[in-house]
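hey team, just a heads up i'm posting the complex here instead of the shared drive bc the drive is being weird again. everything in one block, sequence lines first with there labels, then the predicted structure for the whole assembly after. its six chains so it's a bit long, scroll down
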Amino acid sequence: MNSDLKKGIGQVTIGDSYDGFLLIREATKGLTSNGKPFLTLILSDATGEIEAKLWDSTKEDEATFIAEQIVKVSGEVNQFRGKAQLKILSLRPAQPTDGVHVSDFIEKAPIEKDRLIEKLTEAIFEMQNPTLQRIVRAFIKKYQEALLIYPAAAKNHHDYASGLAHHIVSMLAIAKEMHKLYPELNKDLLYAGIILHDIGKVKELSGVVTTTYTLEGKLLGHIPMMVEEIGMIAKEMQIEGEEVVILQHLVLSHHGKPEWGSPKPPLVREAEILHLIDLFDAKMNMLNRALDKVNPGEFTERLFAMDNRSFYKPLFEE
Amino acid sequence: MNSDLKKGIGQVTIGDSYDGFLLIREATKGLTSNGKPFLTLILSDATGEIEAKLWDSTKEDEATFIAEQIVKVSGEVNQFRGKAQLKILSLRPAQPTDGVHVSDFIEKAPIEKDRLIEKLTEAIFEMQNPTLQRIVRAFIKKYQEALLIYPAAAKNHHDYASGLAHHIVSMLAIAKEMHKLYPELNKDLLYAGIILHDIGKVKELSGVVTTTYTLEGKLLGHIPMMVEEIGMIAKEMQIEGEEVVILQHLVLSHHGKPEWGSPKPPLVREAEILHLIDLFDAKMNMLNRALDKVNPGEFTERLFAMDNRSFYKPLFEE
Amino acid sequence: MNSDLKKGIGQVTIGDSYDGFLLIREATKGLTSNGKPFLTLILSDATGEIEAKLWDSTKEDEATFIAEQIVKVSGEVNQFRGKAQLKILSLRPAQPTDGVHVSDFIEKAPIEKDRLIEKLTEAIFEMQNPTLQRIVRAFIKKYQEALLIYPAAAKNHHDYASGLAHHIVSMLAIAKEMHKLYPELNKDLLYAGIILHDIGKVKELSGVVTTTYTLEGKLLGHIPMMVEEIGMIAKEMQIEGEEVVILQHLVLSHHGKPEWGSPKPPLVREAEILHLIDLFDAKMNMLNRALDKVNPGEFTERLFAMDNRSFYKPLFEE
Amino acid sequence: MNSDLKKGIGQVTIGDSYDGFLLIREATKGLTSNGKPFLTLILSDATGEIEAKLWDSTKEDEATFIAEQIVKVSGEVNQFRGKAQLKILSLRPAQPTDGVHVSDFIEKAPIEKDRLIEKLTEAIFEMQNPTLQRIVRAFIKKYQEALLIYPAAAKNHHDYASGLAHHIVSMLAIAKEMHKLYPELNKDLLYAGIILHDIGKVKELSGVVTTTYTLEGKLLGHIPMMVEEIGMIAKEMQIEGEEVVILQHLVLSHHGKPEWGSPKPPLVREAEILHLIDLFDAKMNMLNRALDKVNPGEFTERLFAMDNRSFYKPLFEE
Amino acid sequence: MNSDLKKGIGQVTIGDSYDGFLLIREATKGLTSNGKPFLTLILSDATGEIEAKLWDSTKEDEATFIAEQIVKVSGEVNQFRGKAQLKILSLRPAQPTDGVHVSDFIEKAPIEKDRLIEKLTEAIFEMQNPTLQRIVRAFIKKYQEALLIYPAAAKNHHDYASGLAHHIVSMLAIAKEMHKLYPELNKDLLYAGIILHDIGKVKELSGVVTTTYTLEGKLLGHIPMMVEEIGMIAKEMQIEGEEVVILQHLVLSHHGKPEWGSPKPPLVREAEILHLIDLFDAKMNMLNRALDKVNPGEFTERLFAMDNRSFYKPLFEE
Amino acid sequence: MNSDLKKGIGQVTIGDSYDGFLLIREATKGLTSNGKPFLTLILSDATGEIEAKLWDSTKEDEATFIAEQIVKVSGEVNQFRGKAQLKILSLRPAQPTDGVHVSDFIEKAPIEKDRLIEKLTEAIFEMQNPTLQRIVRAFIKKYQEALLIYPAAAKNHHDYASGLAHHIVSMLAIAKEMHKLYPELNKDLLYAGIILHDIGKVKELSGVVTTTYTLEGKLLGHIPMMVEEIGMIAKEMQIEGEEVVILQHLVLSHHGKPEWGSPKPPLVREAEILHLIDLFDAKMNMLNRALDKVNPGEFTERLFAMDNRSFYKPLFEE
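-- predicted structure starts here --
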């Protein structure tokens, strides 16, 4: 949609003017200190988001400019309380003839869906333990579509379309190398754990556009839901044997500690390693995305999920 | 088995002599500082347990005097390192003709099994929400036998035969009164939660004689196992509706905090109240049993599960 | 004051108009970004409170519209930054002829004072230990009036007129039933502990209208103040015996842990149970009031005193 | 009692022989692995203590060699499980004609009682606020005798006869200098707080010989007991004014944090400083006593009350 | 600069008018809700700071009124959201002919630089251990100039010009008295530790005007930097012996606990005492400055570095 | 030394007899309850260790059988208090003619020294940043010999000869693969951090035979010692630039959190990743060694450095 020369909304700087299509993420009504109504809009594309105020908004505006509506907007980027804000000069809802789609405005994994599914399939193909392989196949069959759409989290890491599959595929790549360096690891168990550990997110989260938690997600969480579902699928497929309980344990313990949501800590080697690989990939994802936004010699914004630390990009990172 | 006049092994004091049948709980081989073999036996009846040493033990002794064997023993109660120890004068394994059974040597709930099952049935009968009632009935049908045998925990509270059912029945009695005082409570939901909250113990623990944790118990724990089983039973019975997920939430959250084993804290009124009633009954059970063993003006032994506190029994407790 | 048909200020929704008397809880002067003065008023009745702005306020307005003043106001309920705000159309101070009183605007316990005092008297009458009974009688005699006016806390639970007495009476009802279920409990000690445990609030808090902490309250707190006063009253009445120190211990330990304000944890059975009953009633009060404000299928606002949790009201709560 | 040339029991080393009078601190009966009775005795003088075994003990021995009995003993110092142990060669109870007294065997403050009382009197004399001075005088009058006998703690710091007075006098000396360096400090308030802060130990602890906790000490602790007593004495003396509550606050908050036993943290400048001076003197006392026992280049034993640290004595401490 | 009669900006109250020179600490551009630009200025002198708004600011204003610029301002003190705000009536940058200097607008230690250096020299002169004395002299020679300019911290305690030297000199005074009261202390070691413990702040902080952290300060912190520098200086001066490592230990451990920035806790007596004296002086400094700003009977603002406590100034502080 | 058929002392089971050379790790004198002297010996070879008692030991025995002495021993493996114990039948010190060496009895890394140094050299050769490469080369030159002898820790992980080099080489292998998967990582910085992060252990620990902490190790720890040494070497080599401080930061922060010994948490991407790789390799090492000792279906002993967890080896680990 945007020409090659055009900056995304996450890339504009104070003083830029902007003209293009954006997706409304949130729309909230307010009153100025003089009692006049206005709308606060969060507008986004795949590169980021910006706040904008629509002054003297009418009832009609309130009904038109709502979350998940695409709009054509032109304006100027100002600063308000230290943050960029778009001063709206013109605004209209997108028309069918504009040829724009919600999916154009959402950040995506840097790897194509086809490639992700190919990688996933390769890993399952490598597995030799038939029990683990059958369970994994059943899950992939059931959840493949959602897996390629869902983010891996509502925010923090891999919070973009196909983020869940991207996270799994990256973890599988680490696991493959770790298994070469530490051949004691049971690769099949580790692969199975990686593929299933976060699939419960598909039931915990509402989707990728305006990601919220489902009722089940709030009251049970993705971990117990997956433990339950592994048990059910194994029962349906009449699979028995220690693999089932061990795989449930890997999912159950992958947050590492009770206070982080795992009622049992890892008590099997591959459970511990799954937890570490999960940490590793999630942290790399957060670090790389935050450091991409700053220049050498600068610190990133504070990263909430990394103990609120702000990271430095050395000058010798040319 | 013991005559009315006879003290149980948990009631003897230093200097007493003892003659009767006891159950071996543990038997461990040792060597004296002179290199001679001996057996350390933990001997018990329904009133308590005592340590005994069998000096100069033979290979045959080692094969005979093993855990879960009943023995006829006579001896004297001495003190060793501040604890009572039975000095063995004679010892032989029980014979079929002695007419003694393992169940005679195990502490039991102070209420008969029949009465417990009656109370449980009454509570289920009171329930009006058909969904909750059907799920609860299915569980009771499946687990009734084990429920009346199992303890509620490996140690600390209700750690005796039928302890699990005793704990449930006591909690139901509290819930009934609380519902009268606070009619906002959903009695059916609370009853269902109480009856199911700890049934997973039947899969987590090995039984009542020498209670240990099963593999599933160690790797998953009774809470996620029950969440899974509620899901499975609801599916089998084709039950749908919010009751299922709410009931799973009650079980999941009944330990109150992630660091105590509940990945979600209580987020429904009855979940919070279930947690409090569970605490209330478990603590009353521990307090009453510990205070029963001391005289007014004395402190109890330290209670590990109550932050290692030692409780005082006032002098005016006549 | 309000007609049957009229909504209280805690019940209005966005878009409603409002016309009636309200009590000013807080009045703060501000300046608009154009440098013009205005007043921010927190207006309340027994059902709740709302914020309102009085634009272009004069010096006279600042002197008139102050905390604890009753006003006649008409206006419209708008939304500002996600919260309801009253747009003032007309405003005047109440006149003597309006026949309104501060006490009309304050939330009250759902049980009448007479009934509360009757319940309290019944409980004292049931007590059989003369020492405990005499101490309790002395306190009730001294503090009866304040007890029926004070809230049980500045906020969170039972924070309304007669809240303190309401909390005590509810706890006595629980204790009565618990004593039936667990006859080992010393009812007299438990009753005495319940009646006295929070009476120190009368010295810790300033009153019921705009509840703040007294200097003594800030520097000592209600717990040590009550321990001291029990000692003094016992001395004056020449009461001796273990009851005095045990009762002081019940008050001292009723918050359960040092980090919650009890320098000693409960070390007597009834002290532990007093702590649990206190928790139970305070939590029921907070839960019921928060859930009353939402519909089935919704979550409550976050409850600060319950670990900031937000509770769900199931759909099957018809 | 011991000649100048003789080592105290805290000074002997492995291989020494010992002949002299010692006080029995504890006497416990045991049985050897051959079933023979023996007594484990903890024997002490003012320099320290040692364990000894009396083999083949008789009923008469058990009745004779009990706690707080002085004995004449000769033996050799051996090592057992890494600790010194006295091998008893001869043992008899002390006779009146031996001219030995329990007080000879107890460690004492390094400053004489007369000097301690003199220092205390000087400080009170310096005080200018009549209210604070009157309260302090009343307490000293009431507790002077006990103050000069009691230790400041059952163990850790100043755990010797007159330890309480020694601790107070040392703290007063620090306060005097601090007031010179920081004249903003209210010296009278600080002096009053120092003198009263730990006097409750006189009611919390049983005495100086075999120091245990009283029932009041266990259930209430010295801090609330003193807060109560300051209130009572002020009432008796008809003293009013903020000094009373501020002084109660200093005592209440002197442990610094709720989890250390102060339900309120210091909220007055002198309360904070009292807490720091208390820490300072207690730590100096523990450090000096532990470092006295080791040579330069060595580490002390672990000090439990100092986070279990072991301190190094530098080589350049000549 | 200010006449004797004139209030500093930290002393004005609501309603005062102000006319004088102030230093701009921060200048931030904003937009009103009507989209008009304005500047938010933080203006300060040695007595404190105030916020001011410059409405309808021009590009030229933005270039002129920047941090570290001195301005001549007249205006009125209003209240905005509970805080004082200066309403600007006139504003111009200072001219060379105004004869004002940045140093006039910065708070200073209450003791003159000459006196501070004199006190420091006296302490070094008192030292008798030649190794410690040589190291200290080398540091003072290297850092004397910065030491007399730098604050001891970016905020909280001694956060004013010469604050670092003031803190050191105050601590030396305490150490001198403590050594008299506890002669076991090694005075030379304690003096050396005090003088060096915070000198790393000179490398950690940017300076005294707008104090920020340097890159080294953020990535390493003043403690490891000083440990390194003591090692380097000792190597350059070819000093060997345990003094070097002990002195490094004193610096390393002076924050007391790992979670407060000391990877090793104090393990030498003087290290523990250095930590306590540091606490003592820092707390006295914060307390005295906060209490100076309030009247008897009032509480101070919350002190972040003292666990966010608010301290009470008793009425009897005349 | 041991024939192929012979079990190492870490491999014997109860009932085995043993005949061979072992190294005395510890020798402690004790007294039986009959007062007879004996020696408790900890005997080891490269496979593990066992306790043995030498009864009725003579003064000569005490002088002969001391730590680090090699002995020829024959005996039988019994059980004592649940642990294996060697019953000594004959014992003599090794003779020069026995041809045994201390290094034969110490566990070694599973990779040869030559191979380790080769791997290390390869990694340095791959580095392209000349500053980082020069610093690393200087350290390797200085510490190469010790690096190949020292363990990586006194216990827990890589606690064997060449353990330090083994740990570094394993981490470099992980880093190489991670750099391929996440090319944003600065490989040179990561390699430099890995090679230097633990070299301070060479100064912190006493060596490999009976590993204890040096005085410097106890008072400063390996982390600040290395930060200091990087600074010194950079200064000597006249290296400047951000690489030095960043590399010091990587070493300083590699324990991840202040409470784990890093006064600054990782604030540079490669610092965070170094911390994770360190965790990863240390945990793999502990897990593999513990799981090697158990059979499928069993749990390992508790691993102190892994939160005291005991890990399960699944049955399907054929």
